[in-house]
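Quick illustration for those who missed Monday's session on complexes.
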Amino acid sequence: MDRRKEYIRKIPGKNDTVPEQVVARGEVLIAYSDCYDCHREEKKSKGPAFSDIAERYPIQPAYRDLLARKIISGGFGSWGNPVMSPHPEVSMEDAQTMVYYILSLKYRPLQ
Ligand code: HEC
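Prediction with heme C bound:
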């Protein structure tokens, strides 16, 4: 397996469609939080690139909730060593909306 495949560890599965308003709201929520301190859209920073996260996870409720809980609780171990800080002030609903924005990047070739 090549290095990139090993890093992404793509999970096979169908993708649900996400309404455009949800994606747009997720983008705003992320912009107003501290996510971009550690993440960038297409490049690895302290945290994995959002486009790499989108490549790994199918858009399905189970993965949406897994990732939303990780945004709220923080954690490590999925992408290498650094730890993601917890965001207890973010509601489950807002975290799910942020996840939809991140995962929808799989449909948008980045310029
Ligand atoms: C202090 C730095 C930091 C901040 C701030 C941060 N992250 Fe992260 N994030 C990380 C790191 C590091 C990882 C990789 C953790 C791992 O390997 O499990 C990560 C992983 C993730 C993942 C993937 C989790 C997984 O298990 O695959 C998502 C989704 C995510 N971040 C979203 C966000 C969102 C949304 C915000 C803003 C609310 C945010 N992050 C803020 C550092 C950060």
